[in-house]
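dumping the sequnces here before i forget
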Amino acid sequence: MAVITRGFGGRRRDDADLPPGQYRTDDFPVLSAGPTPRIGLDKWELAVVTETGERSTWSWAEFTALPADEPTVDIHCVTHWSKFGTNWRGVSVDTLLADVETAAEYVVAHSYGGYTTNIPLEDLLDGQAWVAYEFDGEPLVPVHGGPARLLVPHLYFWKSAKWLRALELRLDDEPGFWETAGYHNYGDPWREQRYLAD
Amino acid sequence: MARAAIPGRLTWQPATVAATRAETATARTLVLAVDGWTGHVPGQHVDIRLTASDGYTTHRSYSISSAPGPDRLEVTVQVVTDGEVSPYLVGVAEPGDQFEIRGPLGGWFVRRPADPRPALLIGGGSGVAPLMSMVRAATNPTRLLYSARSPSDALFSADLATAEAAGDGRVAVTRVYTRAAPPGWSGPPRRLDADALAGVAWPREADAVAFVCGPTGFVETVADLLIDLGHDPMNIRTERFGPTGG
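..and the predicted 3d for all of it:
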């Protein structure tokens, strides 16, 4: 039985696309655990590493020469805000993995700065995830994860690792930074998987 | 990075407003009574769920500003223009009113009592709220640098003075005013800059941990300045909020 809060009316919006417990914002809030790493494009590299240690790498020039998509997606942060219709440009994870041989079922995304997050591989495939480097037609700014970040819009946004450095393919599931700090291992906003055991 | 899991399922619990305290013209502290609340780690937050009489609900996260303790906690809320929840919490809620909370939450932006390292806490605006909990619970050397627009915008003025006096020298508070300084203040209002930070930063060999909380621009600036001062990025923990920060 819910507790009714006296004096609270609320502002209803007819947002059928809003997952449970979320509210809609038109800002683009920022949430990160530490300082924003500054990565020069001349030093930047993206790697895909398989469970056998095979490494594929892209320099910035190589990465941005790959075929890119321009997805428009809704994003949902565990801190309860959702932002609708965000516009990105990025390389599909399908493209990055096209020539990679793997039996892996899990991925750990590694960021410049040390952040990690874990995602089942199948959640990154079939047009569900990108490594994004533009937002609203502009280069992705560092505070939002530039030069490039993972974009996995169907999971809570902490899974969309900023400042992406590597995708590590694994046979076993290895919980990442927030996943070992009390947050849910999978993070589906539609099932409201915010915290451990939700 | 050291981390700790939060065990168990977090359920919604009724919270009753036990008292309110105005902090400024646009911010106040709510004292919440929660049966069976077992305390928190300074820096943690709670999710608050408000339910209207027709069943409509909405949620927000708020930092806990009180020292850890059983059966009650305090959150300090700054009104967000056009906000949905903060105007209710700051302007409407009265003692006896009820809503639900879930927590305590967050295992990273926390200062554990067992951590022996000195701490540098840097707060901008209402970002001082979780740092206030750390100051109140400080058992190890703690420096707080608090940036507010003006004395009338500053939260916890009396509580900070009390904590400083009661801290046996453990707690030191430095204030920066960005728009209007109080009478007799040395120098003009200014943004928090490298000089101000260098004046309070611990020496590198102290292996201090820094907690930075405030609006995104503030946190970005401060974290970059700390790195410029030689602070290890791995020992800088940030929380960003305010009107543009979740």
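The CA atoms of residues 36 and 45 of chain A lie 17 Å apart.
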